[in-house]
Amino acid sequence: MRWVSGSIPPVAFRHLRYFVTAAEHGSFRKAAAALGIQESAVSRRIRDLEDHLGASLFQRHNSGVLLTVAGQQFLRYARKALQQLGRGTMDVAAIGRCENGSIKIGIFSSLASGFLWALLRAYDKKHPRVQIEFIDGDPADHVSAVRQLRLDVAFITGTSGWTDCETDQLWSERVFTVLPEDHPLCSREELDWHDLAGERFIVSEAAPGPEIYDYLVQRLAGLGRHPEIHAQYVGRDNLLSLVAIGRGLTLTSEATTVAQFPGVSYRPVVNEVLPFCAVWSRRNDNPACRSLLSLARSMAQGMC
Known about the structure:
Shape: rod-shaped
Largest sheet: 6 strands, mixed
Structural class: alpha/beta
CATH architecture of the largest domain: 3-Layer(aba) Sandwich
Strand order of the largest sheet: 6-5-7-12-8-11
Radius of gyration: 32 Å
CATH topology of the largest domain: D-Maltodextrin-Binding Protein, domain 2
Number of helices: 10
Distance between the termini: 47 Å
Order of helices and strands: EEHHHEEHEHEHEEHEHEHEEH
Low-confidence stretches: 1-9
Number of strands: 12
Mean pLDDT: 84
CATH class of the largest domain: Alpha Beta
């Protein structure tokens, strides 16, 4: 490690440490004992430092050493340099241990319950000083941000691989239909696609609305029905309000059903499961991200 000040030649970190220790003990012998090295090594390194600086730092005498005027001046700067290097070392080490740092996470699932909620809760308890920023969005936008390192990791649906990205499937959630609480299908414990073939659906224009639209078309087209689906320019809460007043049904994932909403009921669709995976860049070297992924894998394995 090197330290540079103005036009002065580079000085090794140990030179500064030996100098400060000798100044504080008033003796090369005592400094060497404190540092756990030979006295000759302290004397030699301080002589090298004086040669670099072109000035004597100590007056040598039989009982020890005293700082010269130049040495007193240099001591202030040496202590400050060691303090700054020490703080920098501790800060970097803390980031490496995930005691500090930050992470940006793209989400495509509810944080109300389920695997992602449990993961982030456990991570926050383990690393309470790591700053976490959440970004909602659709999978394509998230993956693009991951590739450009604008996101550290994204949790999205699907199992397909993404070019230039690493993926790891972690958990699955059942698919639920959201109905008005007075809808006739609420009498059923579970629904299948034949039950839903003649229904009108509404989806949000924003994510995950387009994905739900494609999902409905794919499932219902196989029954020979072209589904009636209307896009609404509203958020999730207002979309559920529209379901409650009878404007149409919609789909949601299992994690969102824990949040009860007035006037709606949830019914699972038989054998419909959404896989979720983590997507990150192999170029991402954020320790906080690596720690989160490690914890996610551990929790996913524990669920198997």
